[in-house]
Design a protein that fits this description.
The structure is a single chain. The protein has about 400 residues and is mainly alpha-helical. The protein has 2 domains: about 210 residues, Up-down Bundle (Growth Hormone, Chain: A); about 190 residues, Growth Hormone, Chain: A. It is built from 16 helices and no strands. Helix 3 packs parallel to helix 6.
């Protein structure tokens, strides 16, 4: 049986969106090299350069719910095009800003523009697909993201050797190109979307009439419980950027190049297996997939407490990557299923804000635990976080129906 067979049933608009995502992500070069640019080219201290990433993270937290709600009112495609065009133009201006406060300000504006893409794109996938298609559709979008992210930083590394400023122009050009693709692609006539089985008459225009806002969303106790349940495992994810490299390189004495190869396992597995895996699990319940994914993520990072050298770390990467591939498409599909059609952007905005909040807390907290309590404490803690999420999901019904 062809494990990719389910992709043929996805609406063409999902493929259009994933193509735009791939183009944009293939040009992702500035953010990975931003601290290098600020310290080498602009001569700022590492501490001041790090402030730019802090500003970016704070802006991402703020913009997620705003972008989601505005997309419900104006339409997802409007916000997607504005996001790509504005972020591209801002990147062209960025190299001409030299003062610290100017750089912090333009970084914040750029984050507002670039990060406003996430909630409407996820809401649009939900509107365009039926519930049975959503796990594979979100897996396809993650495939586009990871393919692009495997290309952009590599090319950016070669460009940075000659001119770090060229990264801004290439990144900006690919963002604008993605915006052009979204603008010219033949989207479905009158923006019709797929109706859900629960409401066969729910097909509507991509530009909806005014609808209830976040007051309605915040009364959805099932959704708020889900956001709270997801936060522990979301903080675990970002240890791959913080506590994990510090532990592997410093304590296990693996080289920086070796650590990069270990993380490459994650990317390769996602590219090759995430879509088939989610196609095979398309009939699993949300409770089963989310709980299993969270448990595997926690177990994968928790396995680092056993040490074991390069091979041992590689096994842990495989485990938490499988968990990631199950958890993230399933959780996105769950939010899409839970959200009323007129509030898809608002729900996705709060969902993505949860990840931004975890990014702001998780890396700092992980490093603090590693430094003050030791490696066993941080990795047993990540296992506990994964188990907390899994248990919260498993022992409380999350589906609308039994």
């Amino acid at each position: 049986m062809n494990p990719w067979r389910g992709l043929g049933t996805l609406p063409r608009e999902v493929w259009f969106l994933c193509l735009a995502i791939l183009v944009n992500r293939a040009g992702t070069m500035v953010l990975p090299f931003l601290t290098l640019y600020l310290t080498v080219d602009r001569k700022f201290s590492p501490g001041k350069a790090g402030l730019a990433l802090t500003v970016y993270g704070i802006a991402a937290i703020i913009i997620a719910p705003l972008a989601g709600r505005v997309s419900d009112r104006l339409g997802s495609l409007v916000i997607l095009k504005l996001s790509m065009f504005l972020s591209g133009l801002i990147l062209f201006v960025f190299p001409f800003v030299s003062s610290l406060y100017g750089i912090l300000a333009i970084t914040g504006v750029w984050a507002f523009a670039a990060e406003s893409f996430r909630p409407p794109s996820m809401a649009l996938i939900g509107r365009l697909t039926e519930p049975a298609q959503r796990k594979m559709a979100f897996a396809l979008s993650r495939l586009a993201i990871n393919l692009g992210m495997s290309i952009g930083p590599v090319i950016g590394g070669f460009l940075a050797i000659r001119s770090v400023q060229s990264l801004f122009y290439v990144d900006g050009s690919t963002a604008i190109l993605a915006g052009v693709l979204i603008a010219v692609m033949p989207w479905r006539t009158q923006g019709q979307v797929v109706a859900s089985p629960e409401d066969p008459d729910a097909a509507s225009s991509e530009v909806p009439s005014p609808q209830p806002g976040y007051a309605t969303v915040l009364r959805d106790r099932r959704f708020l419980y889900f956001l709270l349940a997801m936060l522990p495992v979301e903080m675990v994810f970002f240890q791959s950027l913080a506590a994990m490299p510090l532990f592997v390189v410093r304590d296990l004495h693996v080289s920086e190049a070796g650590f990069g190869m270990l993380l490459a396992i994650n990317t390769v597995m996602i590219i090759l297996t995430e879509v088939p895996l989610n196609t095979a699990m398309s009939t699993w319940s949300h409770r089963q997939t989310i709980a299993l994914g969270a448990l595997l993520v926690g177990a994968g990072f928790g396995g680092l407490a056993l040490g074991g050298g390069v091979m041992g770390v590689a096994i842990t990467v495989v485990i938490w990557t499988v968990g990631e591939m199950i958890l993230l498409p399933a959780s996105s599909a769950y939010v899409s299923d839970l959200a009323p059609p007129e509030l898809g952007g608002a729900y996705m905005g709060l969902y993505t804000m949860g990840f931004s909040l975890a990014f702001a807390i998780g890396p700092w907290l992980g490093v603090q635990v590693l430094e003050k309590l030791g490696p066993v404490s941080i990795w047993v803690g990540t296992l506990a976080c994964g188990c907390i999420t899994a248990l919260m999901i498993w022992f409380r019904k999350v589906e609308r129906t039994a």
